[in-house]
Amino acid sequence: MNARGWHLAQINVGRLVRPSGDPQVSGFFAELDRINALADASPGFVWRLQSDSGNATDIQVTDDPRFILNMSVWTDADALFAFVYRSAHTPVMAQRRDWFDRFDGAYQALWWLPAGTIPSVEDGLARLWRLDRFGPTRDAFTFKARFPSPDQTGLPVDMQPDPWCVGRA
Question: What is the pTM of this model?
């Protein structure tokens, strides 16, 4: 738990270019266990959404079986940023366009929540909706416009994510 009592939640979503099991997306599924283990062992990792399979790809939240999501909680923005952009996750994420359709609207949202809180899928999807409709706010933001935790004041910070993955189309 961070000293301030806040953790950072994230959701990211995508629509696979082909159904699970298709050779075109097999590279994505081949990397899941390794990347999830990397996240679990990363400094600052708190929690991630998973089913009995050990990942979240079989949690169906829409009628579209190709729509998948990932959610996790981290002690702070720096820990999540390091995992996303400065670890073995980064080269895998760079292949996103090979496995996922271009997404209309927000596909990643960040938000602060009290330490010890586990976000619901519904809350994550609502954060994406807020980001898509209103842009970055204290309720839903991106690494490009990261708001401080609720116990801090200040303007949003641009954490300078790689331009090909800033969280909004």
Answer: 0.89
